[in-house]
Amino acid sequence: MANTAAGTPKRKRTTSRTDDIENANESSSSLSDCPSDLSVDSRPSKQLKKAPKKAPKKEEKPKCPICEKELSLSFYKSWGSKAVHKLQKQSEMHAAHEKSDFEKEAVANKYPAVDVNWDKLQKRAAKHMAYLKELTNGKHESPFRKAMKSRKKKDIQYTPGYYGPRGARVLMEQILRVLQDDILAAGQTDRAIAAGGITAFAQCVLVPELGIRLIMEDMKVDSEEAAKIMKATIKMGERLNEDEDDLLEDEEEGEGWLAV
Ligand SMILES: [Zn+2]
């Protein structure tokens, strides 16, 4: 992931700042016993403002320090009392509770996001290649194609909802294997493909279109509803179906799209 390299020094900085604040807290608590006229001048007010949230008292429900979601006491305790002061631990704890929350959400909504049968997914995807070929040749409208054409990044969807980045890679590989020549041919007349490239077209148009088809089957809904589900479950997919191969590395920059 792109964040990892930049994350290390930040973590160090935060830890040392936390130590400073802890020291500041210690000195402020001793100051609080002083007469008020004395403490006005000597109190390190700026540092006090930065003071981190204290570890929750027993009667309060603990909150995730990253997203502030309430956590069960047993879950919170399982991370140890020092978790609240270490950024890396905070991130890990946040990821763990998010994963568990998304698993529950998936079960509640009957989204087949956990334990995806990836071999079967390939076979299912194969049945939709004819449709995607027609779509590539302009026989079907696609909101994702429009988004790519307009280059409105906010409308571009990079992963097929709850299938996550891993699903995106599986579908992407299959699409490129089967339809590469068709996309290349379509690029002769389609400015968006010519400008963005085969990979971008597969990733930003055909993968989400295929994702919609698969979600329609999974959830027995129409394409409109499937599109809504796909959009609503992007984060769920990122947590539950991560992928080591980071195909989407260029997402933030919007660069690196292959030229035809
Ligand atoms: Zn959280």
Automatic annotation (TrEMBL):
Composition bias type Basic residues, residue spans: 46-56
Residue stretches of biased makeup (Low complexity): 27-42
Organism from which the protein derives: Ascobolus immersus RN42
Compartments, as annotated in UniProt: Cytoplasm; Nucleus
Region annotation (Disordered) ranges: 1-63
Domain Restriction of telomere capping protein 4 C-terminal: residue ranges: 135-243
Protein name: Restriction of telomere capping protein 4
Pfam families: RTC4 (PF14474)
Function of the molecule: May be involved in a process influencing telomere capping.
